[in-house]
DNA sequence: TATGAATGAGGCTTCATTCAT
DNA sequence: CATGAATGAAGCCTCATTCAT
């Protein structure tokens, strides 16, 4: 289940063997996040990132073979943070509670880091980055949750993808508008998610579902 | 709530007073659309657009004060096309039918023009473009529909924004995955939209709604 | 017998359609030659070349897709100049006179433009440039001369390559030493060239020659 | 004619006083040779050399004050190897045999180590390296050989330089073409060398020679 | 007005070299 | 002494924009 070791844009150029190096790598990724947040995609360039990280541009390129690699590393970090939070969903008693937990994690994440969505979009439009980001684990999590809330869905991956899109669409837009009321937002996201699940089954062949819910 | 008439990046440099000029403007915008579709954001640059439009880069700058203006013009055109299609929703008998119509228009639009979403994202991240795009009319349409489907909502603008986010989130993700089955997609979007509306009311002060549905 | 139209590093990016453009291209190549002569390979960079040409770096890249293309263009120009001079060798009455003419051209060329040799070496060591330069015509010229001086050689291409190597080796080294006495140099080069031709035949299968000279 | 003892780029930073240090120096030079052979001039950089030598970049700079010094050291080593082989020429009975031996050594060297030629060219074009390489000994060898083959030459240094140029020009070109037939190549080089010597005398003041051969 | 040549700020990246550990 | 992380000058190239013709 390990990944193939094909040469990847993503890989670090050198594995940091000293503590200092690891800190540098971390500080660069963090700086990238901050630059993105503060300056937007317009200001997301390697010089600005190095400057904010307090390292030279040379150091940045010691660890990342290129800008894309850094972008991917940032996406990975954010995705992993989200995943690490969201994975606790599976410890919930019921499927419903699991999905609610996932939604809560999503909302928290989005309102803290509204930048991830934009990054992901850019990533998708850059041919070089396609397929570099590992979504597998994450998708699997959502599918697992779907299976618990709605065990008889024929295509849980479709429902999982839809749920993700609903949750992210709503939270992104809310973040965009500067909405800060977590409770209200979470309530509305739940409405959409559970509403989707309870209704998507009502039709025949096109439905994501095979049986009752 | 009308816009001030401050000098805007968006405005065309000259009002095309002759038919030929208007054609040129149109051809440039169309070329921009084609370049975006064919080359992605990577290839979306003024020289490429001028080349594809069959005009000189100089002419492009005769009609648009800058790249941002052209970008905005393209967004406006696409938004208007969508609006012109979606506006027919209001001619439907029932509110339900109106919302269904809107969803249908959204799905059609998205699967035909998957580029709009990306453009809108860039636009949001570019400070220069913020607020240049007229969404007012469009938002008003969705609010009007919401009022018809769920007349007693306290904050129909919130529900309208949410519905838009749900619909676009789902269709964008579907487009991204290359999904082509309109019927299935539409069914699932309806599930999410109507599910949202029917459930969002169930709570007190945080809800977007004041009364029953 | 035309060359395939595969995308080549060599091609100009745009065919200059205005007189000014053509001048610019010419001035850039000439500047490249001057920079190489004055600063050596160390100083042979695009910024220096643009500066000396009196154009912006942007203009350089309007016409040359990259540094390699410019390098190749320079090599082509120098090769062509040499060729245009050397081609008159074929108008000489005898084969001997033809070879002498070729040697004279070589010596003149080398002492005027000692840079070509260096460039050719760079070209050979840069994988990107391999095969971009057309030597065909030139090689054909030398082979034709060899056929006239020594009609019975079995492998005139080998002899041609050897003669070229001898002539260039001697003139390069002389240029390197700063030798300026054309007459003496030419005499010695003739000695080597004709000495080679008259002696190379003396052995069996390994010789470049089949019969008497 | 002796060299001044000005501080030289070339000198090692520290005289390796211990066996281990000497080994390190040797391994770095060997690594430089391998990198040059394997990656060409493009890949000939200090970090790559240190990596291949299995030492840190810091150590490399402990032993060499800079890249140029390392380059020169490599050239010296190769030159010395050649010299050690070629010096046996002087043990030959006749001058003819001596020159033949020299040619044989040249051909062997070139076909085994085609990289030296390229390095020498770079060295010549880099002002920093000019004059750093000791050729004296080597030149003296060739002059000595010339004196034995053609004792009455007025300017044996010129003839020596020419012979070197002929031999290297031919072998370099052959190496470039990938020629592997030593015997044939050697035959042709002899033809050029002896042809040169026998013919260069035939003129008056410009000749490299004063009397008969 | 149309053209397209020209501009140059600014982004990405490399690599020789230094220096703290 | 060895290490390798860090540095930054310098090179390559792009693309939004201007301006002479």
Automatic annotation (TrEMBL), chains A, B, C, D:
* DNA-binding feature ranges: 45-64
Q: Name one GO molecular function term.
A: DNA-binding transcription factor activity
Source organism of the structure? Paraburkholderia dioscoreae
Matching InterPro entries, A to Z?
Answer: Homeodomain-like_sf, HTH-type_TetR-like_transc_reg, HTH_TetR
Q: Which Pfam families match?
A: TetR_N
Per the record, the domain of life is: Bacteria
Q: Which UniProt keywords apply?
A: DNA-binding
Keyword Repressor (UniProt): no
Q: What is this protein called?
A: Transcriptional regulator
Q: Where do the HTH tetR-type domain residues begin and end?
A: 22-82
């Amino acid at each position: 289940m390990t990944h193939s070791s094909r040469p990847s844009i993503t890989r670090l150029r050198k594995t940091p063997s000293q503590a200092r190096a690891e800190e540098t790598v971390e500080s660069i990724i963090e700086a990238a996040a901050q630059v993105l947040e503060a300056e937007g995609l317009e200001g997301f360039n390697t010089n600005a990132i190095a400057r904010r990280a307090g390292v030279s541009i040379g150091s940045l390129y010691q660890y990342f073979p290129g800008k894309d690699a850094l972008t991917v590393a940032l996406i990975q970090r954010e995705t992993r943070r989200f995943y690490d939070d969201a994975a606790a969903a599976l410890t919930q008693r019921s499927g419903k509670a699991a999905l609610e937990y996932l939604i809560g994690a999503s909302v928290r994440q989005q309102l803290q880091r509204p930048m991830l969505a934009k990054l992901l979009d850019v990533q998708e439009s850059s041919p070089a980055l396609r397929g570099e980001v590992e979504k597998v684990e994450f998708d699997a999590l959502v599918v697992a949750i779907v299976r618990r809330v709605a065990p008889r869905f024929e295509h849980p991956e479709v429902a999982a993808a839809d749920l993700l899109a609903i949750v992210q669409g709503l939270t992104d837009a809310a973040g965009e508008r500067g909405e800060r009321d977590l409770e209200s937002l979470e309530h509305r996201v739940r409405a959409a998610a559970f509403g989707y699940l309870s209704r998507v089954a009502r039709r025949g062949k096109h439905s994501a579902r095979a049986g009752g819910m």
